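FYI - complex with NAP, inputs then prediction.
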Amino acid sequence: MSTPTTLITGATGGIGRALADALHDHQLILAGRDADKLRALAEALPNAHTLTLDLHHPETFADALQDLGVITNVIHNAGVVDLGRVAEQDADVWTRTLAVNVVAPAALTRALLPQLRAARGHAVFINSGAGLRANAGWGSYAASKFALRALADVLREEEAAHGVRVTTVYPGRTDTDMQRKVRTQEGGEYQQDAYIDARSVAATVRFVLHAPRDADLTDVTVRPGVR
Ligand SMILES: NC(=O)c1ccc[n+]([C@@H]2O[C@H](COP(=O)([O-])OP(=O)(O)OC[C@H]3O[C@@H](n4cnc5c(N)ncnc54)[C@H](OP(=O)(O)O)[C@@H]3O)[C@@H](O)[C@H]2O)c1
């Protein structure tokens, strides 16, 4: 099998960096907003290119992706969260959250589909436990992740005939900057030992991408384990 080319969004984040490490033997396209951070990350990896992409601007995707050549896999990993009750959270937060967490993955998938079809590739969506259960205080984020699950389910049905595989991964609380922000907003202590190591989420995604073609791993839930 030739070396797959894998595009990772949110590559500079906690799970994103772990994904880049776990997939170091792929040709990597590390996508993110901060060119300096991306460059530093790519320098430490043998086969990595960088792609500056602000997910708030889907109108830039087609141009940005133009010269990338074959892409086998895309991992939609970038995401944002802001906790707040429906009674308090204003429309800007909802718009921003849905734009990054759902609209951008849909638009990016659309732009990449010719390559994914040609490669009979794989789209992986990093969802969340909040994409399966919506709890008080998590409205905008849970709504975005429920919608992301719908996007993945629809895409799986639509693209099966082209050989494109689609997987949703639902991590629980994972030790990253996003979880630090969540715990601050919840007013709770940061309990690193109670959370999933980002490397374990990344290893799960690697397992999904490398599953033999007769095994379609459509939905994978990763919960914090008892140590
Ligand atoms: N950590 C958890 O407990 C947890 C649990 C379940 C699911 N998840 C999901 O896992 C994924 C990764 O989260 P993480 O924990 O690794 O969070 P993180 O460390 O905060 O990383 C998030 C990444 O998304 C990028 N991003 C945000 N807005 C962007 C935009 N407009 N354009 C381009 N990139 C943007 C960030 O880039 P910048 O650095 O430029 O902001 C960063 O690289 C997310 O989808 C999240 O919802 C996380």
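Residues 131 and 145 are 4 Å apart (CA to CA). Residues 91-119 form the longest helix (29 residues).
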